[in-house]
Amino acid sequence: MGNEAQNSTDQTGKRGGDSPGGVQSVDRAITILEILAREGEVGVSDVAKEVGVHKSTAFRLLAALEDRDFVEQSAERGKYRLAFGVLRLASAIPARIDMVRQAQPIVEGLASELGETINLAVVREHYAVNVQQARSSAAVASQNWVGQLTPLHATSSGKILLAYMSDEQRDSILDKAGLPPLTPHTVTSRKALLNELAEVEKVGFATAFEELEAGLNAAAVPIRDHTGYVVGALSASGPAFRFDTDWIKGAEADIRLAGNRISHRLGWLERAPRAGGDGSTAT
């Protein structure tokens, strides 16, 4: 497509996104950014091969991204890497970026200490999305959950996030998402789930036993910001044959401590519980 590397408009004055070709160009440009994020520095030929376009098309797409300061040429001639323009977009979600940065050493330390997989999750629409993961070298090989959307009702992190929402937000999410059964152990009764969430909010700890996947158990605690509002959830997960009730009881204090340490890094100071302005609990 001859017009796919043009910037904001083509010769007719229409924006590229107004045509199927424009949409395809946007998709290819985003794919290039994802490749550079994954690989660090990549040459034009490798980009073209992975995106599935001619080398000249890849070059034009890279040139367009370079014009907008999203990519730059590296010191090694012919290779490209992400540029600072990406940070302009990232600045739109500073709180989440700060949480990930502040949590990283604690998440990695907990993974090493427990020998299991540790995830940090936040709410996205009516799902939980994992924004950070660390896994001990001793942990059984597990899926990379970063960026994955998971049902809130079937995960320990999701239960934490649901438990501290306002009633209105929780009801809206459950109305949209429903309670689909993912395994024979998934909670599919709204009344049963709400009863469990009330207990989760009370104790600040949630578990999920083979509710998302057979053979996978998890436990989670809330992450609070400087105002005391729950902005995320820290979870530990592992195979059910090892990550059982007794193991969770033994690890609960460590998981809670790690969650509190992340919250403290975000400015949270523990104090007497109070009602949040949106109906959620702040402490």
From TrEMBL:
Annotated SMART domains: HTH_ICLR (SM00346)
PROSITE patterns xref list: HTH_ICLR (PS51077), ICLR_ED (PS51078)
GO-annotated molecular function: DNA binding; DNA-binding transcription factor activity
Keyword field: DNA-binding, Glycerol metabolism, Transcription, Transcription regulation
GO biological process: glycerol metabolic process; negative regulation of DNA-templated transcription
Biased composition (Polar residues): 1-11
Gene3D superfamilies: 3.30.450.40, Winged helix-like DNA-binding domain superfamily/Winged helix DNA-binding domain
Keyword DNA-binding: yes
Residues covered by the IclR-ED domain: 85-268
Known function: May be an activator protein for the gylABX operon.
Protein name: Glycerol operon regulatory protein
